Amino acid sequence: MTLFAAGPGSLPADDRSVAESMHALGPGAARTETDHFVVIGDADPAWSQSTGVLLETTYDRFARLMRHLSLPLATPTSKLQCILIKDHDRFVAFARAQDGIDAGWMGGYYATQTNRIVFYDSETSPEFIKARDRLTQLNAQADRARKQAGEARREKRAQAEEVYRTFAAHARDAGERQRRLLADRAAQAGAAKTTHEAAHLLAFNCGLQLRSRQYPFWLSEGLATCFEAESADAARRGLFGPDRDNPVRQREFAAALSEGTLIPLETLIEMIVPDPDEDTARVMYAQAHSLYRWLHRYERQSLAGLYADIAREPAGHIAPRRHGELFRARFGSTAKLERRWLHDAGAEALKLAAASDEP
After folding, report:
1. Taking the complete model, does pTM exceed 0.85, yes or no?
2. What does the domain layout of the chain look like in residue ranges?
3. Cβ-proximal residues to 182 (8 Å cutoff; 6+ apart), any chain
């Protein structure tokens, strides 16, 4: 099925690679195409279609970033692949068997070896399932209260009837609010991981990063987190990128700044992988987002130059110390830059966090 009519900029699909991915996904796999992507999914075709639209929006936003960095946008040789898996457990099994990735804690991932992005329906995550179970319990309480109100009415216990009806109404309203909140969170999480992973995919296929090089955590994840939108609606409207606010990440950064848990810049620029501790990893992602966004705003030429410097390094592993040397060669003293960055980005994040806490 083709989502968009092929235009002058439409890429050919690598049918052999697509067939391999469909075989790996197994029964129920279906194919949807856009100008630059092939979406392979095992669930509702509407999900594949809406994902395709969002991927094309991300492509446009990524092209904008390349223009900002004054870098040429390389055209992939064929359409890029995105795999959508309905069930969380099946996603984890697929990641392990097909890409050798332990994805139990991930919302999605970019696989460098197979050059594709893979994610699942956020509503099937363990966290959302637990939340739905609590919602089911709340609805059950409302049902019991309504039945008890009916019994009290038949028994002419007016006061008890009023208590039960009031409780049932409150439980019903709370359940509806919770249902809407869960739906919004699932939509936001799904949109954020789509654009985040698509940014990785595009970076490694459109000339910004090389799959033969190892990049520091802050550079790869700073870019990807800048492509996360505040909401599903904002994502559909293309309101994301390093020139846009990301209130979620900025609030996390403000919290780490207030709590004194930020990682020193001298350490951050040499880190390759996130810390296994969940709280530390969250701080790392928030810092990477803030640093990348600030450099894009104030040190854009040097940021573009760093990508070129890394591309000139020998293929393969790049030592953490070497990443520190490359960073300092472009940006100068890390201590001075850190002071400027925290002064500007810190004040902005704290102001945004304070505004979000206002009644």
Report:
1. yes
2. 126-183, 210-359
3. 123, 128, 131, 132, 135
